[in-house]
Amino acid sequence: MAESLPALAFLGAGSMGGAILRGVIASGITIDGGITATNRTTAKAEAFADLEGVTSIALESQPSGSADAAAAARIILVGVKPAMVPDLLREIAPRLAPDAIVVSLAAGVTLQTFADNLGADARVIRSMPNTPATVRKGVTGLAAGASATADDLALVRRLFETVGAVVEVPESQIDALSTISGSGPAYVYLLIEEFTRAAVGMGFDEADARLMVEQTFIGATALLDASGEDPAELRRRVTSPKGTTERAVTVLQDARLDRTFADAAAAALARAKELAAGA
Fold first, then answer.
1. Among 76, 164, 190, 269, which residue's beta carbon has the most beta carbons within 10 A?
2. What is the total count of domains within the chain?
3. pTM score, two decimals?
4. Which residues, if any, are the signal sequence (predicted)?
């Protein structure tokens, strides 16, 4: 990983932008030129005011803040709501440095939208991070626009590697990626919820049920990470022939868990396409 990154601007440091900003700082990486974050209100801006190396701007008191921040940065992360993106791009376009890299954090906003509002020569990369980036355990998908260079992509990859793993995909795969790593944490939480209910149903109180289930998931994934083994192999080691786990796993397999997950991902992808079409 690079020892430093160039100056960063977070335009709209909301939940995801703020998570990445905090993750970058937590990683300890040096930011040459510092970080600027903009938010609409003073109250939101104050949430970042105490972070070392961060200049936090409230647009209600500094209306030119977004363009000012973009002009001073090499990497500009656009984290405003999708409907606000075109206006923001038109505002910052005249102020961008020639080598500026604009990174989209906005779900559903295409690279074409960025090109239309910044110009075809603008270096744009579309990102799809997920919420575990908050604790530097994220997965981020990156899709590079036509004018972004390999070096641009490598630089942005290093930025997102400070908050987790990175997968590079063509833009046509970004929506599919969002159904796996973007929505995926919700699927895991749902499994934990249901498994906890099962434990309560067996007579454990809520606190003990939550402790057992949550720590089982946390421990199992930590072991997967630490061992480097295939999950099927780790499952085999827990599943003694003719034992209790084998019988439970058979019930899950008989319930067509494979088809359920495939159907869930397909449903999420269909909805992503509806949203892209404005439905």
1. 76
2. 2
3. 0.91
4. none
